[in-house]
Amino acid sequence: MIEMKVAGIALDAITRSPIVLLKDGSDRRALPIYIGQDQAKAIIGALEQQKPPRPLTHDLIVNIMDAWEMQLERIIIHSLQDNTFYAILSVKIGENKKEIDCRPSDAIAIALRTGSPIWVMEEVIADASIPVDRDADEEERRAFKEFLSTLRPEDLIQRGGINPEES
After folding, report:
1. Count of Cβ atoms closer than 10 Å to residue 37 Cβ
2. pLDDT per residue as tens digits for the range 101-126
3. What DSSP string describes the chain?
4. In this prediction, what percent of the chain has a pLDDT beyond 90?
5. Which segments constitute the BFN domain (predicted)?
6. Strands 70-81 and 118-120
7. Is the CB of residue 138 less than 8 Å from the CB of residue 145?
């Protein structure tokens, strides 16, 4: 799993649909997730730390969690099936832990309100992320190719802690 942060909300240029954009800690990968207008407003409100005059749905959920002494440990965006992302809320109640199925947009809105981390499974990032820093990716590929070009079989045996004479 990779921890990600909300980079912001964008609009798809063609459909005008809102997209929440998550970025990894190195700003090398971004994960765009299409969301609804209401979820976009909820996420923007949390990012801007707006306090509505009356609790909205995500605020209500956080208030219920607080009243029942529930802690949101993290959210996990765990799969992508048929262009639909799936997430869970990982909640702790005393010593008990529960995983609650949730739309990623709602999970993100709640995580932002509680200061909880956002985690994404590596398979989801591999399937749906977009590169942000192509130059850094290319430099990493070049360095790896250079490393491989100088690697000898003896290096692998020495690095692996295997002494062929002891085998």
Report:
1. 10
2. 999 999 999 999 999 999 999 999 99
3. -EEEEEEEEEE-TTT--EEEEEEETTS-EEEEEE--HHHHHHHHHHHTT---SS--HHHHHHHHHHHTTEEEEEEEEEEEETTEEEEEEEEEETTEEEEEEE-HHHHHHHHHHHT--EEE-HHHHHHH-EES-HHHHHHHHHHHHHHHHH--HHHHHHHTT--TTT-
4. 71
5. 1-132
6. parallel
7. no
